[in-house]
Amino acid sequence: MPAPDNNTKLDDVVSCLSAHDPNAMRVEDAQAVIRQFVTPIHAVEKIAIRSALDRVLAADIISPINVPAHDNSAMDGYAVRGIDLTTEDRPFRIIGVAYAGHAYDGPIGAGECVRIMTGAVMPKECDTVIPQELTRDASDSHITIPANAVRAGDNRRLAGEDLAAGSVALPKGRIVRPSDLGLMASLGVAEVAVQRRLRVAFFSTGDELRSVGEPLDEGCVYDSNRYTLYGMLKRLGCDIVDMGVIRDEPEAMKEAFRTACENADAIITSGGVSVGAADYTKQMMAELGDVQFWKLGMRPGRPMAFGRIHSEGKSAYLFGLPGNPVAVMVTFYFFARQALLHMMGATAEQALPLMKVRSAQPIRKRAGRTEFQRGILAVGADGQQEVRITGAQGSGILRSMSEANCIVALEHDRAEIKAGDMVDVILFHGLI
Length: 432
Known about the structure:
Layout: H1 10-14, H2 27-37, E1 44-48, E2 61-62, E3 72-73, E4 77-80, E5 90-98, E6 112-116, E7 128-131, E8 142-145, E9 156-157, E10 168-170, H3 178-186, E11 191-195, E12 199-205, E13 209-210, E14 221-222, H4 225-235, E15 239-246, H5 250-263, E16 266-270, H6 279-288, E17 289-295, E18 298-299, E19 303-311, E20 314-321, H7 325-344, E21 355-359, E22 370-379, E23 385-389, H8 399-403, E24 406-410, E25 422-427
Parallel strand pairs: 5-6, 12-15, 12-16, 13-14, 16-20, 18-22, 21-23
Antiparallel strand pairs: 1-11, 2-10, 3-9, 4-6, 4-7, 5-8, 17-19, 19-20, 21-25, 22-23, 22-24, 24-25
Helix pairs in contact: 2-7, 4-7, 5-6
């Protein structure tokens, strides 16, 4: 299928699935549709490298220099000519000292060496460094190098060994990390082109919801989803627009969607996509854009809406997440997160990293749906990593996400897990 653009229809993308059950859409199929339908933004800005942390590179960083710029010593010791090393102990005369930033420029003859410090430029005739701890009989003027202490060429870092001038130091699409700031600085790069921040609007729906600080009337609950969404979007480095709680009233919802669409690249909602609640929402979505309501073969988080809406010549991608607190987090991480990173132009960080560990207990699971259970990864009595679930896995038990340090991802076709079986886990560290 051709690359998607703003004229691509969601039905066309879904129709490319080899098999598709609208009442039990597989997780991987939904992810594939979203990945195919969403397109990156193409707005770039140039900023100082100190401001580039967690931003997405809009172009390759090309090294303007060799790193290191010169052959240099990998350790403190003595620089010698490799041809002077023998199979017997040999004395060498010390004729100078090379410091980092202060090279030794004089000639070096047979049986001569230069005291050299880590990072110092290698003298022209020298190609080998003898670690100082391997020498004997050291004085201010002489050392003895034992037979076969090193081989010619040892302990020398070559010019361009880390990076050759003209090579890619950091690729386009990388999310800049602290080490990358140091690397760019080491190349003399002062400014860098990055993708502009993705702007995401979000709100919760439901007459029963109250914001923190408001009185909690009978039958009402505090809205927790906006706070978890805020945290997850903040972690992604998005510019966020919190639109609060929108009441269950068609005109209010329509106005909220229009406002969000006109001011953001993507919209995330929680609640209002279940079977009982979605009738007028579906009608409204048909008026505003190209949106589908899915029943996913997963737990938690079965209902979800996805598509693109339009208002006043602008468009935004929509992710309608369930209302239950855990389901909001799970659907965000396994559907919205990847799409938002793709929109941001990020490449390598899109996939959630999986690791395999053993289950410390049996886990109930039926084949035919993907399950994401909250787990605690720890070291077992034998020193090997193992995971256990946090207990009750209801989609409304937000405490289970706070207690967990990982998600146990159980594949669609897998049935019950026995104690000792290997399972996939996704660590929360750096994620939530």
